Amino acid sequence: AVPPRPTGRGLHVVDKMIKDLPPISPSSFFHVSASISKKSKSKKKHSYLPDTSGLLSEDLFARTALYWDEAGLSFHVEVQKPVEEVFFPNCTKGDSIELFIDTRNLKTTHSITQFSHQLVFLPIEVDGIQTAEVTSFRGDDKHELADPNHFVIKTTLKKREYTMDIEIPKDALHGYDPENFTSLGFTYRINRYKGKPQHFAISSTFFSVEKHPELWATLHLES
pLDDT-derived band of residue 136, with 50, 70 and 90 as boundaries? Predict the structure, then answer.
């Protein structure tokens, strides 16, 4: 038998329960994984990460590539818009890149751990700052925040676009050990001034990306 539809206070409770449910997007039904290549000077073309904008219902305005070797990670991004405004610490208000990296790709914990990293990179300096680790830890499971001097950044500004090449050394990645851990948890948020950001695999429209490393994509380190 079909149960009667709630009325009065019962209907109000059901509506409240529905509103309290977490939002659902197409990406909620998938876990994204991809492979990234080992860094090589002989490669002439970039191997870009998959486009997940369709899963996230987002505009695609940037292409990204990520490489690894024993010394650390290299990130390349091409943003198809000019640099307009840059802010720090409120980097999401302007043009900026945020990288979220879990060096142990932990999927069984639902909170930030010592292996989680949230890194901010700005296309131009703001008050002498162009990069920072801003990982927000809870409790004692944490690491010291990376020294900004460890990062190497090269930005190319053009009239209609900009590119950034970022070197993230092992010293800035707590727990990075590609010999014994051959996958990473990873996502990014590419912010743009007066526009919605572009993400990889998980959208901050639906989740607090910086708080849920278990939802970040898995990147396999190819030899």
Answer: very high
